[in-house]
Amino acid sequence: MRLWIFLLFWANLLSAQVPPSAYYAKELPIHLTDSQSLQLFSPPQFLQGPLDSLLQRPQFAIWQTGDSLSYRSYLVQEAPSQLITVSLFVQPKLLWDDNKGIYSKGPRAWPIFPYKGANFYQKKEVPAQLALIDSSGLLWEGPVGLSIFGGSSRAYEQKSLAIYARSSYGAKWIRYPIFPDLPYKKYKRLVLRNSGSGFKGSHLRDAFIGQLGRELGLGVQAYRPARVYINGQYWGILNIREKLTARYLEQHYGVDKDSLDLMEYSVNVNAGSSAHYLRLRKYMQQHNLADSQHYAQVGRWMDIQNFMDYQIMQIYVDNQDAGGNIKFWRPKTANGRWQWLLYDTDYGFGFYSKGGYDFNSLKFHTEANGPRWPNPPWSTFLLRQLLKNQDFRQAFLERFCDRINGHFQAERLCNRLDSMGQVLRPELWRHQLRWQLHHSLWTNRMQEMAEFAHKRPAYMAQFLAEFFPEFGPQQSLVLQTQGDGFVRVNDLYNTEGLAQGLYFQGLGLRLKAQPYLDQRFSHWIINGQRYEGQSLALPPQARDSLYITAVFELAPKRDLIINEFSCRDTLAGDWIEFFNASAQALQLEKYALEDEKGHRYQFAAGQLPAGAYLVLCRDSLGFKKRFPDFSGQLWSGLNFGLGAKSDQLLLYAQNELVDSLSYKLGKSKDSLFLSLALRHPYLQRSNFALNWKKERNAGSPGQENPIYSKKRKERSLSKNWKAANFAPYLWGLALFLALLLAAYGLGQYRGRE
């Protein structure tokens, strides 16, 4: 009897459980006890227990058990998307009420687009519930604030939304690493963006341009497209973006959010003060920047290289809405300089005018008397003043050419555009059906962007030639490599194989040849003449074409190699093991080690015997605590640390690269290992994932790597097994099988008789 009562009690507990937010391939059974009720929203429906029911479509559900409420997103009979799924719940009246709903036009809206005066232009925030879901299940859910976001794009049927995590709602952070390529695990502010002016077009234009800006080192918003539901109703694709706030700057640049100035538009203050910026503008207005002293002073107040890249980006992509979308910031320190953030570039890459590739946006962005919109005089003031300085003009033109030849190569841009489009394609048809958008709008916009990528360089070269006549005629620049290596151009971009670009006869070139592993640089061939030296500074060349070839050749066999290293051992500290793979002793003073940040360690005088190991560490005391029995060569004094997540090590012998490795390590699943060992001392180190093994133990410094020892023993056992004389046993087995086969054949024959 007691057992029966216990089982009944347990069954009631099970029936009272609330199913988690997730995708459900089949109908979802719902069991309500007499103390439970369920509110559904798509369409509205209220269920009261006791009750057994089935959900057969996507629903946002509020469970009530006693006095407690549980919010759930049930995506029933929905195929999971390749995109992350965002499910939002907002009390319907807060969104759709004719008088106060933040998503509705309301009674004061203009009758025509963009419906100025509508409710959705209010800066009103309402409480909401947010769930992040993928095919594996629930990623995060919790209470947030929600508001309508954007400018005139608020007038579209699908609107951009701003998401706020606040303690007052019950969740201080959205604790999920939403952007896989960023190291951050939590966010305070997010935007679900309808792609702004690109809502009816590519749905990725701003994100595409932003990713190009990120490669130039500009501050941009991260991007991740999402499938969205509101109150259980499919809401199409919205792009998850970061919000450019003081918190963003704190997260990305490591500055205190309360100790910075953040401004937008002309002199609007988002955080801090405008005093420093107004001082900068006043100085630039009152002083002639053609004077090198005044130009240098401006360079102490603003990051001129950052400003160059920002302007180059806006000009090249032909963003004709840039004048109204300007954000810039500085840390409040003695040497804090202004930097610019790239955002809201939907008018770029051929959107504003048909084609767009032939529009002279250099003239547009330097117009002294432009209209109030889109290029008022205050928006072009800084660039116009800086262009009075000849050093700036030369650096700006040189940098512009390098960006066109390197980062803006048409094939490269089209590959990026195509890969981003492929991510959207599986979801796009449903999004277009939801908002009654014709697919041709998307394909036409994507084709326009590809056309822009191909045709823009030639027109841009013409505009640059007209604006900078003092640097002479255009010059065709042809760079190629023979052998395995690449060329670093003006310390800004790398090229290998055959590449053609534009340049000007009045500009010099700085070149550095970088061989790959097992190669070494031999010489240059420039317009038929041979030049020596791995680094080369070419003066301006009065030629229509400049043909440059970097020649690489096979290097002698490596002798000293990186064999094992540790970058996560808090006791031993960082250490690197080297192995002499040659047949003779090595003089170590000819070697030097560099990391990806350019830190350099020069080996002291010493000798390493053939087949011997040397360990270089930062902390010899910590190393000896970890390895008390170590008796090999140990050198301390490594003057830089190894990146715990990623780094690059370059080993040089008299400035010739003899070994290298680049690693990028994961997070959670890789958190237990302490060292990394080369699987075989004579393997190419270029394929890190294939040729290096993560060891959970502390490592084996000063001796053969365990993974190599294990494989050698396995090969030895295999060889011994093959050498054993198993012939008598094999002959016996063969005879037995022959007799068995004969007996089977005889039985078959008698059966037929």
From TrEMBL:
Signal peptide: 1-16
Residue ranges annotated for the LTD domain, each copy included: 556-664
Protein name: Spore coat protein CotH
InterPro entries: Lamin_tail_dom, Lamin_tail_dom_sf, Spore_coat_CotH_CotH2/3/7
Species per Swiss-Prot/TrEMBL record: Saprospira grandis (strain Lewin)
Transmembrane region(s): 726-747
Keywords: Capsid protein, Membrane, Signal, Transmembrane, Transmembrane helix, Virion
Keyword Transmembrane part of the UniProt annotation: yes
